[in-house]
């Protein structure tokens, strides 16, 4: 029996030693927790926006997930987009702020087409019973939102030699007419204003379709468009001929109509 009692005593000694270690860890953990609480309080006091982001970002993520999950797999599988313009309700539509793209691209030393995009745009579409033939659109681009992924170049484009955003903050397109070239295609003419200069331009437009968006429950229609213009006509001749004069415009846009109850 003696060996048993010796083993028991050794086990008790080990438990006591581990307990002391765990106790120290507990005290250290408590101090760490209190320090973190103080740091959190200080960060919230000095950086309230950072603190708010930590609090609300998870909440935003949850709401986004809830919205997406509300769009069931069945709704996605059975979702149908009509290519008929006659199915689109007449009325006023606004550009979906999350589903659009406007970019310019120009020749760069004959190596490639250098892409310039804009990050802020608003647009309004007034849809007529005649479809694209009788409808009108107006788009306003925030010139200061130009983005090339090259910060130095962005600053140069915003400067007085190019877009001169301090004097001319907006790039505006207003449609003036439409000529159908196919069942879902046509040429949209309009006035483009850059740096206070207005010139006519033509865009090739494709109507991609219409349906009630299964996620937002709003009437939604989409378009693709592209066209060309001479940048020199708008006083944007800097860097020529290293940078080409011909500007290609590429547009993707979704417009939504708010429910009648709103």
UniProtKB/TrEMBL annotation:
A Pfam family hit: YceI
Signal peptide interval: none
Domain of life: Bacteria
Domain named Lipid/polyisoprenoid-binding YceI-like: residues: 92-256
SMART domains in UniProt: YceI
PANTHER family per UniProt: PROTEIN YCEI
Protein name: YceI family protein
